[in-house]
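Running co-folding for cytidine-5'-triphosphate.
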Amino acid sequence: MTTDRYEAALPEGARPRVVLGVAGGIAAYKACELLRRLTESGHDVTVVPTAAALEFVGAPTWSALSGKPVSAQVWDRVHEVPHVKIGQEADLVVVAPATADLMAKAAHGIADDLLTNTLLTARCPVVLAPAMHTEMWEHPATVANVATLRERGVLVLEPADGRLTGKDTGKGRLPDPVEIFDLCREVLTRGRTPADLTGRHVVVSAGGTREYLDPVRFLGNRSSGLQGYALARAAAARGARVTLVAANTALTDPAGVDVVRVETTAQLREAVVAAAREADAVVMAAAPADYRPTSVSRAKIKKAEDGSSPTIELEQNPDILKEISQHRLREGAVIVGFAAETGDDTGSVLDLGRAKLARKGCDLLVVNDVSGGAVFGSPDNAAVILSTQGDTVEVPRGSKAQLAHVIWDLVVAGLAR
Ligand code: CTP
């Protein structure tokens, strides 16, 4: 949740005006949850369904949940000129689900109902959360329409992978409504600031890897993945295509983000290196285990009857950050590392951070002081970001979303150099 950053950005008492467009897909029922989240957190929501959406969920539901009259067409309350006014007055338009048909109309400027009229008059940020069968999403017509809309600055989210309407599975699911809600808040916070990662592909790693001793035991660490997820969510809200490589996290997939799940450092390395080949930026927020047992028992290891203790022999894992920084898989890409430091006899947290920046060879290093375990699982974070140019940016304690945006600001600046 990005509450403090979001609330700080809004004038006191402001109720952001959100238009929730709903197109005719079975996922329309999930938009009820999104609507509920928006109204309960103080947004003034006008629901604009299409006629087909009303076949799935009726007007009384939208009206009761939004506290406003609901219409799909332009002929109701004509004296209020709703086909122009609703779009003009909005701070955000979000369409969930957005069908292939709705996106085709939007891409071609067709305005044959209230929602498509609203999309033509809106000057605020527009988020489309598509949901459809994989074949429709992959159809060249849809691909071209999505590209056109993105070029015009519309934030078209990647659909999620998973179970579709029937028994089939694939890409085309509506992202989790709670995650669409979080993304909407991120976009509202940025207001009319351009989505400066549009057209960029970024890779974020998150979570902590596990190195198995046997089928039930592993060596792991305390990373929750929250900072990596905040980075992925923030990048998606800024228009990026995001690949999130998630190691053993128990968090909902952020809306519009491709999630690759891994367990071990070797798997994390494979996934990050593969995605980094065509990435404009890689942010290594994961905590990969530095060592793994030299052998993994196929059967559960039994306790020794004679009371003796086992010795676990370890070998070193690859250093992914160092590898991608040294080999530079894509020219001009910005590579960001994290350093969780406590400081010791050899130096302060910052001394160790500077030494690590040089050792790893990345462009930016986000240094966390983890003395006392303050960061793990916490919604907050504070950091100092070091750059190879010798710059130091201090980020005071705030939400992980806030830190994520400062990191992306620096990445955007690095990409422009
Ligand atoms: N990292 C990595 N591969 C590893 C270990 C770490 O890519 N095998 C990345 C982390 O994702 C992080 C950065 O390197 O972005 C720093 O991680 P850290 O554990 O602090 O670095 P280490 O090199 O393991 O240094 P230390 O000796 O301080 O643990």
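Result summary
The pocket of cytidine-5'-triphosphate is lined by residues 265, 284, 286, 288, 290, 317, 319-321, 337-340 (CB under 6 Å).
The radius of gyration is 24 Å.
Job closed.
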